[in-house]
Write the structure tokens for this entry.
Amino acid sequence: MHNAIRFMTLACLSAPLFLAAQTSNVTLPQDKGPNKIDISSYPAEQQKSYKMFTDKCSKCHTIARPINTTMTKDEWARYVKRMMHKPNSGISDSQGKAIYEFLAYDQESRKDKNPSVFSKSLSDEEIEKLKAQQQ
Ligand code: HEC
């Protein structure tokens, strides 16, 4: 009896965490921006990686989210790894590398020229606050 209650409590507590780790259930300011990049002037390799980026990075949240977020290249490197390590991300090491290189190129050639129109990434605390407001 005691064990059954313990099990149920654990299952109830961990289910929302499990879901939260997979799909983003919050709307961030970046989600509301444009959901495309004009890549017509990008090098062929980056044009190819753009497809992989839009395919892989739209699984759990809008593709607008990364398109409208500005960060340093080091932060992108860390962020892509963080996204790859989420359960069921479906992103391999070589795909992650190609996506990172695309994001680094896009950061330099598009976002760094006009940083004020993009959103800085939010801290975990800021995201938790938005989640609480949107429930
Ligand atoms: C397995 C699901 C999943 C995949 C795949 C995924 N993300 Fe995310 N992403 C999340 C979650 C979860 C959050 C955190 C916000 C939240 O808790 O809803 C997030 C947040 C972000 C943010 C917000 C940063 C901030 O703090 O403001 C960016 C940018 C981002 N992801 C970029 C990417 C990129 C680039 C890719 C592709 C390499 C990607 N994501 C793939 C789940 C995912």
Observations:
- The chain has six helices and two strands.
- The chain has one domain: 26-134.
- The helical segments are 2-22, 44-56, 64-67, 73-84, 93-111, 124-134.
